[in-house]
Amino acid sequence: MQRELLIPRPDWPQKMEEVGFSFHSIDGIYWDERACYRLTTGEVDMLESVTNELHQMCIDAAQRVIDRELFDQFAIPPEFVPVVVNSWNNDEPTLFGRFDLSWDGKSLPKMLEYNADTPTSLIEASVAQWYWLQDVKQGADQFNSIHERLITRWQEISAEAGIKSIHMACAGESEEDVGNLDYMCDVATQAGLIPHFIDINQLGWDAVGKRFVDDQDNAIAALFKFYPWEWMAREAFGRNIETASTRFIEPAWKMLLSNKAILPILWEMYPDHPNLLPAFFTPQKFASDYVKKPLLSREGANINIHATSGEVATGGEYGEEGFVYQAYHPLPNFTANGKDNYMVVGSWIIGDEAAGIGIREDESPITKNTSRFLPHYFV
């Protein structure tokens, strides 16, 4: 893998907006085509294999959590445990997820975490970098079948669950979430579904019919959400989920995999696995460098790196729920023009199969919501 410097297309903002990627410059430079990453076919095959294996390991870890009733370690409210267990026992289908991997192109990739509930950077990875490839790297290929796999997966879910229409919700004040939800509505439409966009705050409850309804009092048979399960569990309507007839996508059991508590469980089940980092519920097992992570933090919030080279920390509102401690594995730094570029690979799962990657960079060793997105290709 190599990082290549490029001259951006002069009309790239217009081209991004034409494909629905409107938040390309949110908080400054977000989409960044001043550089890209070049991979080989062998590297792509390896990433695909590793991602598939990690996903299956996480599924097995979720089974252990269910079997041994380890919900306290995940800070799941006791009253919400039946929702998680029922969704697992009913084998409710999953749509997608994204692993964050530390990989320098030389050593083996290491799993940092699994964004299994509300993974972001979707339209960037699925659509934006694909159209970039057509313009800039004609004749090359890209590890990216995300769009096609999403359509197929929606068709499978529709057939399995008997879903013909689906409500799609997010917090309307988030431009990024709205953009990704707009894209998902388009994908669902291409899959033959009828999507209905609503703000999560428009979600209502029909106590008589024991069902969720939208702002027009229409019954919600199925709900796709860009809204974390741990938030829903603590919302007023969360108490109604167990008895509701609504089908949720992602299912409630995915909150186990998106919780950092899955990391120590994985290490206990697969000690010394080449793609895992040591992880525990206490820091005492580490003689030196480690990272302190809140169970439920998002976009790099409240992360603390304790290293002999110095400490790095980010702010935020997470941590009350508890922490895990993971061995520090520095992100590769592809320095260019005197600036640091700490890179992380986001490897996508659609259904149960690897479907492509997206690459983020930051001048800090902690990836955040403002970290840049760079395209890639392979030959």
Low-confidence stretches: none
* Approximate strand percentage: 15-25%
Query: Could you give the count of β-strands?
Result: 19
Structural class: alpha+beta
Q: What gross morphology would you assign?
A: globular
Helix fraction, binned, reads 25-40%
Through-space gap between termini: 11 Å
What characterizes the major β-sheet? 5 strands, antiparallel
Q: Counting H and I runs of at least 4 residues, what is the number of helices?
A: 9
User: Topology as H/E string?
Assistant: EHEHHEEHHEHEEEEHEHHEEEEEEEEE
Mean pLDDT: 95
Q: How would you explain this protein's 3D organization?
A:
This protein has 379 residues and is an alpha+beta fold. It has a domain at 2-142 and 333-378. 28% of the residues lie in helices and 25% in strands. The chain has nine helices and 19 strands. The chain has helices at 12-18, 41-68, 81-89, 122-136, 146-161, 175-190, 229-232, 254-257, 262-269; strands at 2-5, 35-39, 96-102, 110-115, 165-170, 194-199, 204-206, 211-213, 222-226, 247-249, 279-280, 290-294, 304-307, 310-313, 323-327, 342-350, 353-362, 372-374, 376-378. The protein has a five-stranded antiparallel β-sheet. Strands 11-15-12-13-14 form a five-stranded antiparallel β-sheet. Helix 6 (175-190) links the parallel strand 5 and strand 6. Helix 2 (41-68) packs across helix 9. The longest helix has 28 residues, at 41-68. The radius of gyration is 20 Å and the shape is globular.
Features:
single chain; 379 residues; alpha+beta; 5-stranded antiparallel beta sheet; 9 helices
Sum this structure up briefly.
This protein has a domain at 2-142 and 333-378. Helix content is 28%, strand content 25%. It is built from nine helices and 19 strands.
